Amino acid sequence: MPHPPTKGVGTGLPSPDHSARTKVVPLTPSQAKDVPPAALRPLEYNGPQLGIENPKTLTVDKLWINLALDIENFRSFEKKKQPYFQLNRMYEGGEVFQFHPDSDVILEHKGFGNQQYKHMFRVVYDGEVWGTLKAGTRCVNDKTTKNLATLELENHLFYAEGWTEELQDVIKQLAAQYHNTSKLDIAHDSPDNQRILDFIDKWHFARGAGFECLGRQKKSKPKFQLYFNDGGEQRVTSFDWGSRRSAKWLTVYDKTSYMEEHCPKEYIGAMFERNGMEGTVIRAELKLSRDKIEQIKGFDIFSLEDVNYLASIYSDQITNWFEFVPDTGNKQRNRRKRVQLLDLKGFNVIRLERSEATPADNLYTAKLMVKSLYEKVYYQGKQSYKPAFQGLLQEYGLELWFKNKIDFLDQKLTKKYRRLKHSNHDQQTGT
Prior knowledge:
The protein has helices spanning 29-32, 72-75, 163-173, 194-205, 255-261, 266-274, 290-294, 307-318, 363-378, 386-395, 399-429, and strands spanning 57-68, 86-91, 94-98, 105-111, 117-125, 128-137, 148-153, 177-190, 211-213, 223-228, 234-241, 248-254, 282-289, 324-326. The protein is of the alpha+beta class. The strands form 2 sheets. It has a 12-stranded antiparallel beta sheet. The longest helix has 31 residues, at 399-429. 27% of the residues are buried.
């Protein structure tokens, strides 16, 4: 259940006054190109979210959403008497489109996309570089994605108030419909997160240090970034919990040092300062992809400015996954007292409902099943699976996809069964 927006939680301090917010003079794409994002809007951040005693913030750091948008209207506008999108001007060889002459949203055509999309646009909203729009899917067989477009929001937007309202306006002015969310990163920043690195350091080098981790993650190996201190001892400076290829993973690292060495984002540093965070700030960043996001019942992108909603998502995702209990030898791990590494105190955390499990009705799962059934039919000789294999190809329109995939799949399976054959031969001969 979405929360109403919450600002200045528990501080007793007033929220920033937006009545006197300076109106940014709209810039042309050529002007906006070379202007740093932080200079394009007043620096109005979420403000102190919690008490100064233990300062911490929760913020969205990445958001990619999919929209239902027929981008072909852009390419055929000259043939229409009343074009849906009008050509505004030419800019460095790229076409610039506008919904109508008074629209706040301008799309600058930047190139002819990538392997998934035909076109790429820079989105300028109210004179501010606001994001990237990739549209015109090349997957012609999947009817559900024919008119799909991906909107990737600029990072600096999340560190100023009001971006969810602007997102609603951008979608409305594009005459698009929200489809789903493909990527969501939630950043938990606090100097106190150093204790997470300290705990994982002991847990890694002391073979558990008397603690067990819950969930399936205990069966895999987290990735650690190590360094040698003055005493010649190795220490954990950052780590990834979970695989980067999975639908959910957590990365914990020194955000202050990272910005100093790689990308000095002044707007993030200003947010740290305004929230009373001094010295080294450690970021625990939770990264979710579509499969995990769709499991959140009633997920609402327009509630992502509410820190309580973010805390509820964060808590739900790390439960029984990034949690530790004392190693007492008792098999009933869930009854032991859990170590609270990530501090969410002060937030109004509620339990989010999970979407009901559904049968294999999405494209990704169908592709996995097709590859599995192909192996059973043509490499294991199980002909009874052939009708199901052919049925999935037809039901999901995967004939062209499978035709392009079959050579790679055959190479992979041939190597697999060649190894199995040699392994069985060695066992029989005793070599």
